[in-house]
Specification:
Chain B: Residues 66-209 form the Thiamine pyrophosphate enzyme TPP-binding domain. Chain B: One of its GO terms (molecular function) is oxidoreductase activity, acting on the aldehyde or oxo group of donors, iron-sulfur protein as acceptor. The complex is a heterodimer of chains A (349) and B (249). By secondary structure, chain A is α/β, with parallel strands linked by helices. Helix content of chain A is 42%, strand content 19%. In chain A, α1 runs parallel beside α2, α9 packs across α12 (337-348) and α10 packs across α11 (310-318). Chain B has a single domain, classed as 3-Layer(aba) Sandwich (Rossmann fold). The chains are: A alpha/beta (349), B alpha/beta (249). Chains A and B meet through α3, α4 and β9 of A and β1, β2, α3 and α5 of B. β9 (207-208) of chain A pairs parallel with β2 of chain B. The structure holds thiamine diphosphate and iron/sulfur cluster (SF4). Iron/sulfur cluster is lined by residues 18-19, 22, 24, 52, 122, 126-127, 213-216 of chain B. Iron/sulfur cluster (SF4) is lined by residues 18-19, 22, 24, 52, 122, 126-127, 213-216 of chain B.
């Protein structure tokens, strides 16, 4: 019988990845995700799988790129400045259509900032981040259990669409311990899915590359990538709406959403009609679902641990159906439920 | 009639786009012959650089992945770690390997990754139009050293084969030249040995090949070969700088 175990976010996500059939982990230490790297350094070799502490995030993500090009399930994890260094290779992987899972346990920025929980990398994650015309799938879990489930499934989604998938958490998610139900262990996923590099035995040689020199080739390729992302948006967009009757609709993701949920619950007990709309995929963003939900709202509140990044997407979705207000917390720290509750009360008038 | 000379099976029939007199084509051939002779073609993944070697997938009948500029040793590491059964080589220019990718090559070598690195030293950046490389000779003119490389401000050229040879985990490091038929034959033996080492699970092998870039040097192919023999070989001595597995095979 599978029973719940108490695990720190970072270690739980790492264990979920191992159980998803991970063949290799490549990473470089950075707070607040160090438990992740440490966990992998023990558990991967213990199962005869690859672990490398790379010399930098640049090297780590390129090891992921190489290993993933063989068709194996591989991943890396890092935090904000480290992810910034990985953007070059992520762009290559998107261009070359190579699947992998990349975990960003965000900290405060810009620059070295601080190591507190922050949502300052929303734009970086959802707008590409590296050069060129591409998007990735970005999951924003708000509990350790959800992080475990999304990560486990992220490998399937990555393989299905041949695309890197991001898990965007923050220091709070990575560092908190919660009881979790762990998924079943899959055998290590290696081998030929019809595109990976495995030596050209008995078949034509294959190339994994992002270079498209011939006239019109890149244009065609980029349209194909865009069409692929349309399909992803149709099939993989995820969100949560807590209630059906509300005056104020709070939109938030990740840790901010978890806090907002508590605020909404408290307010509803007091008879105040608030609800939470939480994008689980922040890319593809649930535009249609939010547009629909916003129709019933008198006001929409965006609460983010930054100076207003998802705000842009919310405004695009709401499209004037209701006034949108913003509250931000950009210092590498989180809101309290009371702060959000007070803001909702104020908006209710 | 018996066939006395033919194209290696590991190479395609495509005509390369290298400039006339460029050694890249010769070095491709040496790698192709080594793969053929060691029967490695069907188990090999090559890692292409950014630079004039970028089109490896056009010319090799092996699986190829194309790395970001300088990162080929990291990709090769990733491949070899999850698929130790594959033969993995990177093929890199001097800008790629000794400038932007210096960290990746140093660390891959120092971890003793079970890969083969072919390093094409043509003393400049070919693809981007002849700028200074970390290997540009003192006094050598390039588009970014118009009055010649001045070591006091530009630093001194890196001797990569010696640097690789100084690292304990490296099993083989050699510098060869593609300037004359006799030297090319020697280069062939070094390249083959570097693959043989991998085949026999010995460790990290590195072969630096002194190469021409007549286009950016502003020389005829003949002058370019003479530049390699006279100037480059003087600064970059040919030889084996580490051989942990014993004499040439
Ligand atoms: C990140 C990045 N920086 C710069 C470039 C531009 N670039 C392309 S090839 C090259 C130099 C290649 O020179 P080298 O490695 O010596 O190879 P060669 O062309 O001489 O064979 C540079 C700087 C790039 N593509 N990517
Ligand atoms: S630019 Fe130089 S290195 Fe590149 S193909 Fe031409 S001669 Fe060779």
């Amino acid at each position: 019988m599978n029973k719940k175990v108490l695990m720190k976010g970072n270690e739980a996500i790492a264990e979920a990845s191992v159980r998803a059939g991970l063949a290799g982990y490549f990473g470089y230490p950075i707070t607040p995700q160090n438990e992740f790297t440490a966990y992998m350094s023990y558990h991967m070799p213990a199962k005869g799988r690859a672990f490398v502490q790379a010399e930098s995030e640049v090297a780590a993500i390129n090891m992921v790129y190489g290993a993933a090009a063989t068709g194996c399930r591989v991943m890396t994890s890092s935090s904000s400045p480290g992810i910034a260094l990985m953007q070059e290779a992520i762009s290559y992987m998107c261009g070359a259509e190579v699947p992998a899972v990349i975990v960003n346990i965000m900290r405060g920025g810009p620059g070295l900032g601080n190591i507190g929980p922050s949502q300052g990398d929303y734009n970086q994650a959802t707008r590409g981040g590296g050069n060129g015309d591409y998007k990735m799938i970005v999951y924003a879990p708000s509990t350790v259990q959800e992080a475990v489930d999304l990560t486990y499934n992220a490998f399937d989604v990555a393989d299905k669409y041949k695309i890197p998938v991001f898990i965007l958490g923050d220091g709070a998610l990575g560092q908190m311990a919660e009881p979790v139900l762990l998924p079943e262990e899959k055998p290590v996923m290696k081998g030929d899915q019809g595109w990976g590099l495995s030596g050209a035995k008995g078949r034509e040689p294959r190339a994994v590359m992002s270079l498209r020199l011939a006239e019109g080739e890149l244009r065609k390729h980029n349209w194909n990538l865009a069409a692929k992302f349309e399909r992803i948006a149709e099939a993989e967009t995820k969100y949560e709406l807590t209630d059906t009757d509300y005056d104020v609709l709070v939109t938030a993701f990740g840790t901010a959403a978890r806090v907002a949920k508590t605020a909404v619950r408290q307010l509803r007990e007091q008879g105040i009609k608030a609800a939470l709309f939480r994008p689980v995929t922040i890319c593809p963003f649930p535009y249609a679902a939010l547009a629909d939900a916003a129709k019933q709202a008198k006001k929409v509140l965006v609460a983010e641990m930054n100076t207003g990044q998802m705000l842009f997407d919310v405004k695009v979705a709401v499209e004037g159906a209701a006034p949108v207000e913003f509250m931000g917390c950009p210092g590498g720290e989180s809101f309290s439920p009371e702060e959000i509750a007070a803001k909702i009360k104020e908006m209710q008038g | 009639m018996s066939i006395v000379f033919q194209k290696p099976e590991s190479l395609t029939d495509k005509t390369t786009i290298f400039c006339p007199g460029c050694s890249h084509g010769i070095i491709h051939r040496l790698v192709g012959e080594a793969l053929d002779e060691l029967e490695l073609r069907e188990t090999t993944v090559g890692v292409a650089p950014v630079g004039c070697g970028v089109l490896l997938y056009e010319y090799f009948r092996t699986d190829i992945v194309e790395a970001p500029h300088g990162r080929a040793p990291a990709l090769a590491t990733g491949i070899k770690r999850v698929r130790p059964d594959l033969t993995v080589f990177s093929y890199q220019g001097d800008g790629d390997l000794a400038s932007i990718g210096m960290a990746e090559i140093m660390h891959a070598a120092n971890r003793g990754e079970m890969i083969t690195v072919i390093f094409v030293n043509n003393a400049n950046y070919g693809m981007t139009g002849g700028q200074m490389a970390p290997t540009t000779l003192p006094g050598q003119k390039t588009t970014t050293t118009p009055t010649g490389r001045d070591c006091a401000t530009h630093g001194s050229p890196f001797r990569m084969a010696e640097i690789m040879g100084a690292l304990d985990p490296v099993v083989y490091s050699a510098r060869v030249s593609a300037a004359t038929p006799a030297k090319i034959m020697k280069a062939k033996r070094a390249v083959k040995k570097a693959f043989q080492n991998q085949k026999e699970n010995r460790g990290f092998s590195f072969v630096e090949v002194l190469s021409t870039c007549p286009t950016n040097w502003g020389m005829t192919p003949v002058d370019a070969v003479q530049f390699v023999e006279k100037d480059m070989e003087a600064y970059y001595p040919l030889g084996v700088f580490r051989d942990a597995c014993g004499g040439e095979k």
